[in-house]
Structures are given as structure tokens and as C-alpha cells.
Please model this.
Amino acid sequence: MTDTLELSHWIGGEKVGGALAGESLNPSDTRDVVARTPKGGAAEVDQAVQAARAAFPGWADASPEVRFDVLDRAGSLLMERAPLIGRLLSREEGKTLPEGMGETMRAARILKYFAGEALRVHGQNLTSTRPGVEIQTYRQAVGVFGLITPWNFPIAIPAWKIAPAIAFGNTVVIKPAGPTPATAEALIAILHEAGLPRGVVNMVIGDGDVGRAIVAHPGVDGISFTGSQGVGAGVAEGAMKRQARVQLEMGGKNPLIVLDDADLDRAVAIALDGSFFATGQRCTASSRLIVQDGIHDRFVALLAEKVAALRVGDALDPNTQMGPAVTEAQRDVSYNYIDIARDGGGRIATGGERLKLDKPGWYVQPTLITDTLPDARINTEEVFGPVASTIRVASYEEALAVANGVEFGLSAGIVTQSLKYARDFQRNARAGMTMVNLATAGVDYHVPFGGTKKSSYGPREQGFAAVEFYTQVKTSYSAG
Model:
């Protein structure tokens, strides 16, 4: 165990304290209090919005080089401190230390990428239908954005929302996830150390009341949310009632198709990565393994062997391959779905038992369930844990139909040596992202991210697509 941090809100460039009413616990060892936190509410949100609105004109009109410098410097600082912050992330969220370090470096690279994007905002010169008239289009900052972020990527997702927002001249009020506020606060502190002007990025720590206050506040011009479908629906309704921009990312039930012609070892490695690393707590995780008859039994046997061999333990232990669930509630969700699958006729190929290790933590035994039906709850509802199920199919056509047969559509993968099926899958999988001979989880920071159906709503996140959400187009006419 290490020292307990005492966190504050960030409002107008200052740390704003309050009664330390909440705690962030180490899921690997719940005796370890990572941080004590204030509980913000509508009053703190209003102060933060007012600070963001006051900062907006100066920040929006600043040279893009100013925004470049802040983001680039913050990215460099984050890289320098990746060992320290990555360890904090793993201690607070439960990812293994390599995963925590990797996410921290990803956040740093996101900051640096959007530093460059601040200099690349462009418009068009168009020819009018009227002689002597010229037309230009250009992009302008929107205003204040409210950002509501999840716990499973506690520094990367705040970075990929904050960075484009401020790169294009907007200001921000962010609510970090309840279980992981210390990791988010580390990012906010680095941005200010890098020279961010007062009020450009504000953070209010708290529970759902903070999120609701951000969504309802008339001074917030747009909302970007990542979380569950149920909460996302409320966010969308609240934002649209007052005509604020809204962008939602709401999870997945991602299929991985394994065809008979697949390289078996490669297919197993892809499924193991996509389904179980990061404790399965990724919206892009491969939770449905749709396997063709001819390879099914061999695939299940080999994957079960690999899953059973995963070393579950303290996230900070260098020998650990899979850390704990982030909270007790999240741990219980995994075990509840295992019971649901078992009661529905699924067979536990490996796992499914309660883990008791030498430290009190929220550990889940990685679990593979076979003999499940496509419409079973285990195959239609998001578990968000180290639990994967297999569905046996006779053909590629059946596999594609099963893959498309849920209300989610974030990421979808196929393992095959057939160019014909790979190309057909890329065209016809109803998902925002497709993977051929790759895990469904694992995406680059410089390309668009998002899904179809109920996985996503609004413009894409990340990469060159982010400019669509965080700017508005102005069309300007002029005559000589």
C-alpha cells in the first residue's frame, strides 16, 4: 500500500476543496484507500461552467500555436511520468501494470496528436453561382463542452475527449468516473502544469448528480458521454431537450467469428486477447465467439486451456496477467451472468468459480461458456467482465447473421484465410469497426472510433473525425 491522496475539484485553474466524503479503493486490495474525494453537485458544476464560459473567448481566439504548445507539452510531461501515473492507474482501476503504463502512453500520444490537429483545421473556397461573389467555409469553436467519462480507461478516454475539445478552441467541464478520480485528476494537473489558461479545463468530482447537472446546464453547449445504454439515453434526452450537441458511446456485445479455415493457434490468441485482457472491461471486448462446426471443439479445448492458465492477481504484481474487476458491483455482474448462462443451458468450459486470493479484492475467475444459443442473455447483454461465450454455427452465412443479430454494433471481428469471406464481412458486418485476423479490442488513436445501432450516437470520436463534433462550420459570402 502507498499514501492516500486527497483530491479536489479543479475550477478556474484552481483546486477547490470540500468535505472529503468519498473514497477510491484499490480493487486489488480493498484495504488500500487510493484517494479521498469531495462530492460535488450543482453548485460546483455551475461554478465550473461559469469559469469555462469566461475562458472561452480568449481561448477560442488564441493562436493555434498556443493550443499546440499546451497539448504537446502536456503529452511530453505525461510520457515522462508514465511509470508513476501508470502505476497509479493500475492501483486505482485494477489493470495490470503493463496495461496501466500502456494506457498512460496512449493518452500522451492522443494529446500530441491533437496538438498537431490544432494547426490543421481547414475550410474551403467555393465558386458562387453569382458572378463576383466569393464563398469561404471555415470552422469555429462551439463553446463549453461537458464530458462524462467512464472508469475502464480512466486517462485515455478523458484525454481523447479533452484534447480535441481544447485543440479546436473550446473549453471543458469534465466529470470523471466515480471509481477512478485520482487518475483523471493526474491528467488535469499535468494540463495545467503545461500552461493551460485558467478555466479552459475544469473538473468536478462526484456521483450521478454531477453528470445530470452538466447535462442540464444551459451554459453547456455540447455533451460527450461514454458509459451504459441506460444512462446514455437519459443524457441524450436531457441534451436534446435544450438543443445541445450530444455524442454517445454506449458499449458493445462484440462478435468474433472463427471459420473452419482459420489458423487455430492464431484464432485462440486473438480470442484470448480480445475477451480477457484488461479483465474483459473494454467496450470492444470479444464477448461472443461464433465458431464454425469444423473447428469449434478444437478451438474451445485450446482456448479453455489458455484461459485456465491465466494468472489472476494484484494488478501491481509483475507476474499478474489479469487484474481484478474495478468494483465489487462490477465483479458481481460477471458472476451473475455466469449463473444466468449456466441456468440457461450453457456449459462452463473453464472458470465460473468465486476466487479467494491472499488479498481482499474484487477478483473474477476468467470464464469460458460453451453450448449457448444466439438469443440467450449471455449473448445479447453486455457483461463487461472476463466472461466469453461460444456459439456453434454451420456456415459463414449463419455466422454473419448471428453476429448482426443483437442491438449493439461497435466492433466485430473474423478469423479466416479466405479473402472472399474477409471482404464480405468488412462490407456486411453491422458494426462501426471491423477487424480481420485481429482482436476486436485494440484501436488506434488517430482514426475514427464509434459504432452503429445502440452502441453509438452522434459524430465519431478520435482522429480526424473529432473535428466534426467539436467545431461548427460557418459559410461566408463576400462581394467585391
